[in-house]
Each structure stands twice: as structure tokens, then as C-alpha cells.
Amino acid sequence: MRAMAVSSPALDRALGDIVGREHLLSDAAALEVHAVDGVRPRWVARPSAVEQISRALALASAEGLAVAPRGSGSSLSLGNAPGRLDLVLDLGRMQRIIEYVPEDMVGTAEAGLSLGALGAQLAARGQMLALDPIGGASRSVGGVLACHASGPLRVRYGTGRDLLLGVRFVQADGTVTWGGSRVVKSVSGYDVPKLLVGSLGTLGVIAEATVRLHPLPPARGSWVVSTPSHAIAADCLAALLASTLEPDRLAVLNAEASKLVGVDGARAALLVSFGSVAEAVASQGAALERLAKEHRAGAAPVAAESWAQLAPALSGPVKLKLACEPRRLLHWLAELEREAAGGRLTVSAVGQGGHGVLEASLTGPLTARGLATRVLAPLRHELGREGGSLVVERAPVELKAELEPWGPISPELFAIHGRVKQAFDPTRVLNPGRFAGRL
Amino acid sequence: MTLSAAFLRELEAIVGVKGLVTSPEGRLTYEADMHTFYKGAPDAVALPETPEQVLQIVRLCRRERVPVVPRGSGTGIIGGAMAPQGGVMVSMTRMNRILELDFDNRCATVQPGLINLWLSQATREHGYYFAPDPSSQMVSSIGGNVSTNAGGPHCLKYGITVNHVLGLELVTGAGELVWIGGKAAERPGYDLLGLAVGGEGTLGLVTAIMVRLLHVPEGVKTLLASFSSIEDASETVSAIVAAGIIPAALELIDEFFVRAIEEGVGAGYPKGAGAVLLIELDGPREEIEAQAARIVPICRDHAALEIRVAADEAERALLWRGRKEAAGVVGRMTSNWLLQDAVVPRSRLPEIMRRMQAISRRHGLRIANVFHAGDGNLHPMILYDDRVAGELERAKQANEELLQACIALGGSVTGEHGVGLDKMENMPLQFGPADLEFMTRVRRLFDPDSIMNPGKLLPSHPACGEALRPGPPAIPPGPPAIPKGAWV
Predict the structure, then answer these.
(1) Could you give all domains of chain A from N- to C-terminal order, each with its CATH number?
(2) ipTM of the shown complex
(3) CA-CA distances (angstroms) from residue A413 to A54, A410, B172, B187, B193?
(4) What confidence tier does B483 reach under pLDDT thresholds 50, 70, 90?
(5) Which residues form the domain of B404?
(6) What digits encode the pLDDT tens for the residues B122-148?
(7) Mean per-residue pLDDT for B279-299?
């Protein structure tokens, strides 16, 4: 790390000049609120424009400061605790919609805008950004992209990597950079937006996102399939995915999470919605009911609000994200529940049925040792055989210090990852230590 | 460049005598892809059969600083699969097997030389197919599709190749053999997969590809609407998308191509129409019926002359055959043409059509159009005759103006064909110096010695450290830029 060239008061003045005095916070209360995994920054700066992010990062880079970008602050516990932290860049003031042409189904928003606020503007024109992480309406566009967060809509629309067309971001040294395009189809050069998605702000700070939008379906209907066993849930899921039915949202719920949508006594449930013209919604719903019956499960229509009722499902003190072969999702849910039960932990889980991704929150007598030896180690070992992974996305600070939140990454891939970080943030300004492999 | 006898012996030891082409006449086959402006024969062609052989080839070339150029079926139209600096071309035609079909996980793993259409043919009886459908799909390889991040008519609804690739086995230019991605949809770390797809061989050579398979939809409906003018057809495209309908495909065919296709393959397009829209809907039956019922009046409101629904699979196949053979029949109508692949925001289609006509008039050259209208991906063909003095120059000028007009409207220089040699120098229209420098650094991460498909994709720039020969190859007058039998 470079020696400080400028004194702290001078840095304070310089940062204040960049974002405006009133938007530079350094009082103890603010620093406590903006701590990342218990590590308090020295300043919180609230830029209002990409140029301010650029100047702040140029300064940070020159002075060897460690910077953590922040959106809504909902997912700051993702990743390792920061090795160093001087400056939190809070993008909460950057909430403008820069350009929205409904006829093109493309929009550009500043990174700090929440999914909910953006969604409301788009809905007024009959459109949506098809990203719906569970309980994520208050999350920022930039944060959702940087964390590669997604939800039930993934089954039809994919994730941020499928929806982010172009991105304006600021590199560690302050260089404002553009990647991608403003049109729905472009292959000019490397797909830089995809590199930014899921990079947790370690390669650049996302300032503006140009995203592909979709029409809101003219009609929607939701159904829940309640199943008495994981095996029957797996059969129903497989049959659904092998059919010509085209759900626009799909969530696999375990017993605990299914209570949120009014299902009691099921071992697992599928929450399914169809979005199309009314006739197609009705006929697909009827087909789903038949499919459930054929597999000795029950399907019933549920209110549209069921999806919003899932919001608390993943709000426990520990949150995990497991990725596996899609066909093995229910198997891994059962394994997770079995390991957790041994530690008297309660699991609430929501799975992306089409993609083999399971998010789960744990509550109960949590200990770092219990989590590490009872849950993480055995599951990661077995998951590794099918290329799967298990990430601790959230945990109390005192537990996290003793956990490996990301899990292993192969040496060959880690070598390339190291080169990526070295190329774009050689002095480790951006979120040092927080990413996979402590990059 | 001349390869030493010792180097060639080492290469032969890797791929065997049958896997090596060094004769001048043998190498000539590989001097160009479908963009025949650009010629550059490799000094040797290696035809490996295993990923390990590919790895050894790259390591050998890296040690000797010899350029490596990958090649699939050679049907690309950007000068990507030719060797402007010589070196070793790695042809993937012997690596063309399906390695795994995994319907439980709805994916397949294939070797890069596998022909695109073969995968859908192998999976359709099980109810699945591979969605990316470039017009070349009966001959182009999936490795080539991955390399260029190929599109196709149905990308409007289903996305381009990158949206369907789950994993890749890659030999990097640094001489590593790695698997990135896989059946599990996520993993900790950077999205290297997103970089590698569309890398055009500049980051490494792809030796295996895991792709997503989609379930065949319940129903398909194909409509043809004809118009007296291309403006009416363009306005209709914008109106359909603005109505919140995203068809599976939405293709525009202009008067020139309607005539050429009818005279060439006879697809049943209405003769004399100023433009034809090919509209395909797929999905649940009730959905496509309802969408069709909305699209018909939209077409009528925009002065459609005739609206027809394909009565059966045979008629549907015929309508599509006309579209997919469009570039093949153009040779009947003109001696030479230049092709663009630029994109405009879909609401700007009517405007770019007007600007295109102005450019056409200004240069006295006809510009013909057959393209993926639904996502604004143009394929204007500028027709010229190289026997007429000055026409090629005017065609090139018109081409530049057209590209600049697309970018001015907020578009992209290439929607699906890729950059290669063809659009390399156009990249600064879309990207600033910092943006290009970022991409150059990405390239160096994977190719530290500048041996992977050098002199392509990124504009030559002294600071980029490209080991370019002086200047890009001159465009020779004479043969058509893109011959009969290319697919766009």
C-alpha cells in the first residue's frame, strides 16, 4: 500500500470539494451505519454524478484509499469482510432515469435507483425490468447487477447478465468507461457489461446501466403446487420443465417458506405464475393442475400478492446461495435441511427451479463452527463434484470472520481471476479482499 | 511468415501427418472466409482431434511467437477466419461430435466443429432444440457461432448465442486449458464466460461447448404481410413491438429481395410487393392466436396489401427457406455487393430507412435490404459493379455514411456478424479510447504475447502493442466482397 501523500484534513477537504461538503459524512454515527461487516470507513461520500465518482476514485487511487461502493446497502455483507476500508461511495443520490424510450424497450438508469422506483415508472408504460430478487424492491439497480441477484422471473427472462445491454462505469483510477451498447443486439467487441455483472464493484463502480426491458404480460395468474415430499416436488418440477408450459415466474419453496404463501403441511411447494393473454394463462393453469394431480400433488390458484409475500423468506441472520445441477435442486434442498436440522437450525428456502439455484436463510442457535463443519464443509464437498457451489451471502460479523463465505475456486480459474483484478485495479482500491479468492 | 522445418515437425508430432496441411494449394483453401475481400493464407493448417492437441499447438505457437487463427466452417463474413499475418490456422472440423445430451438438465455438450443444425436435429425428437439460428445454421459450426456470438432471426425472442452458452472449455492464449461455467448456473468469481463468447478467437480457442436446450414450443404461427413500401413495413415493425408483442422472429424483406428470392428459390412471396414482413409467433396456442389477432389489424392500419398465415409446416418452411437463402440468390441480381450488420434502436427503423434512401440516391447505388427488423439489426447490401470505374469507391463511401447514420441514431456497428477485420476500424465510432483500452487489457489477460488471431477485433493503435504488419490488407478490386452462397 502506498504511503499517504496528503494529510487526512486535506483529503477531507478534497473529498468535500468533489461531492459537496454536505454530502461528505465523517461523523461517528454515519460511519457506523455505513460500516461493512463491522469495518468502519473514514468517510462516506454521496456523489450525484458520474464525474464525481470519477474524481473521488482518482483521488482514492492516488492516495491509496480503499473504497467500497454502496447501493441501497442491503447486500453489503456479501463477500469477505473488507481488508481495508477508507471511503464508502454511497450512490443513493444517483436515482435518475437518464433515458427511456418505451418503443425501444430500452432504458438507462443511474445505479442508485431502486428496482421498485424504476419498476413503477416502467409499469406506467406497460413495461418492466425483469429482475425480481426476493424482497428486493428497495435494492438499487447497480447493486443488483454488481451482486448478480435475480429472482423468480429468471425462468423466462434470465438475469442481469442477459438484461444489461450497456454500462457506464468508473475504473479504480477514475477513468470513466463505457461498455456494451444501447440497442438490444450488439456484438461489437468483448461483452464488458457481463464482466461487471457479479463483480461486486471490484473492477469498477457501475454508475449507469442501460437495460433491456420487456412488456408486462396482459394477464397473469399464479398457482401453488403443494407436495408431500421432496421427491414428488422434484417430479412435478421436472414434468413442468419438460412440458410446453411457459411459466414467467417459478419458485421452489421449502416447508418453511411455503407457509408465507398460506401453504401448511407441505414438505415443498412450487409457486408458479403464467403471464400471457388471459386465455393462455387459464389454459396453462389448468394444465398445471392436471400435471400436479398426475404426480399425486395438489395445485390451486393463489393470489398475485403471494409473490410479494415471499419477501421475508430470506431475511434470517444467515443467508446462503447454493448452485447445483438443475435436476438436483430438490436433492440439495433436502440435504441442506437435513444438515441444518442436526444443528437445530430452521431453514427457509426459495429455489430458482429452472436453474438449480437455491437461496436459503437460517435461524436458530448459529455458531461459526457449527455452520462451517455441519453445513458448509459437507455440502461444498459434495456440490463440488457436480460443479456446484455454496456461498454465504450474509452472516453476523462475528461468525463471518471464521467462515469462508465464497468457498473454493479452482487454481486454474483463480490464476485468471488474479490477472483480471491486477489489470483493472492493480493498487487494490476497489473493495480489496471482499471478492472470491480474497481479490 | 515462414515456419521453420523444425517447427513444422513439432506441429506434425502433435496432430499427425493427416492433421497437418502445408502445401500451397492446400493452404489456399483457408485463405479467406465468406468475406473474400480479405485474403491471407496461413503458413500451416492444423486439424486437431482433442483439446490436449489444441493446448499443445497453442503452447508451441506461444513459444515461437507464431500467430494462431481458429476456423470453424469458414462461413463467417467478417474476415475472422483467415490469417492476415500468416501463422498456424487451427481448423476444428475434426472435432465435431456431440459429447453429451443431458435432457434432465436441458443442456448439451458439443465439440466446436459440430454443425449448428445437427444439434437441433439430434434433440428435436426429444422435444428440445438449440435456439440460436444464424441463416448459415446448416453449415456453420457451433464453435464459430460462439466465437462470433452469432445471432439469427429467432434471437429477437430468445437472445443471441451468449444467452445459450452455459460453459466452455477454453485453451487460452496464455497456454492454459480451463473449463469456465458448467451445468450449475452460478459460481463465485467473474463472468469469464461472458467475455469468452464473442471473443473471435482473440482470447483463446474453444474446445468444448455446453449449451442450453430449449423445449420446443406448443405452437408456431408464421404470418406474411406485404406492403407497397419499405416505410410502411418499418412502421409496422415499430408498431408491433410498441404494442408489447415480441414475436419469435420479425424479418423484413425489401422489393429487391422479394424479386430475387422469387426468381431464385420461389418462396411464395407476393411478386411486386414493395416489402414483405415475415412474422413468426411461438408459444402456448392461445397466446399466439391472440397475438396474431392483434398483429393483423396493426398491419392493416399500416396499409398492408396482403396478410397470409402459413397453412401448414410445408408452407412455413418455404417462407423461411426464402429468407434464409436471401444472400444466396442475390448473385443473380448484381455482380458485387457490400454488406453491413449495423443496429439501430427499433423505433428508429423508419428514419434509418429514409436516411438510407438518401445515401443511396446521393451515390447512385442501389441498397437492398433483408434483415432482422424486430431488433433493429440491419443487413443493407450496397450493390455495385466493379467493372464500372469508381463504383467500388462510391460503395465504400456509402457504406461508411450508413454506418455513421446508424451510430448517430444510437446504434451499434455489428449486431451479430462480429468485428473481425471488417469492422475493426469502425469500433471507435461506438467506443472511446478508454473503452477500447479496457478491451485491449482484457485481451492481454488471455493473450499476453499477441498471438491469438492478431490484427482483428480491436483497431490497430500504437499504444495497444499490436504486432501488426503495416496497415490492414488492401481491398483489392475484382471479386465480389461476399460471394453467392453466404448467409446473412
Answers:
(1) 93-215 (3.30.465.10), 219-309 (3.30.70.3450), 315-400 (3.30.70)
(2) 0.96
(3) 30, 5, 11, 11, 11
(4) low
(5) 330-408
(6) 999 999 999 999 999 999 999 999 999
(7) 97
In sequence order, what DSSP letters do the residues of A168-205 get, joined into one string? EEE-TTS-EEEEE-SSS---SS--HHHHHTTSTTSS-E
Indicate whether B414 belongs to any domain. Answer: no
Q: Which of residues 91-120 of A touch B (CB under 8 A)?
A: 101-106
CB-nearest partner of B445 from A238, A323, A419: A419
| Count of domains forming chain B | 5
- Do residues B162 and B180 make contact, with C-beta atoms less than 8 angstroms apart? no
B73 touches chain A (CB under 8 A): no
DSSP code at position B269: P
Contact: B162, A391; criterion CB under 8 Å: no
Is B180 in CB contact (< 8 Å) with chain A? yes
Is B194 close to A419, i.e. CB distance below 8 A?
A: no
Give me the mean pLDDT over the B58-69 stretch. Answer: 98
Mode of pairing for the β-strands spanning A298-302 and A346-352: unpaired
CA nearest neighbour of B81 among B422, B472, B475: B422
Q: Which of B91, B126, B143 is the last residue of a domain?
A: B91
pLDDT averaged over consecutive 10-residue blocks of chain A (439 residues)?
64 97 97 96 98 98 97 96 96 98 96 98 98 97 98 98 98 98 96 98 98 97 98 98 97 98 96 97 98 97 97 96 98 97 96 97 94 93 96 94 92 96 97 95
Cell output for A169: 462505469
Last residue of a domain, one of B215, B231, B265: B215
Nearest CB to B178 within list A284, A413, A437:
A413
pTM of the model: 0.96
B119 and B35 inside one domain: no
Assess whether B105 and B87 both reside in one domain: no
Q: Assess whether B108 and B50 both reside in one domain.
A: no
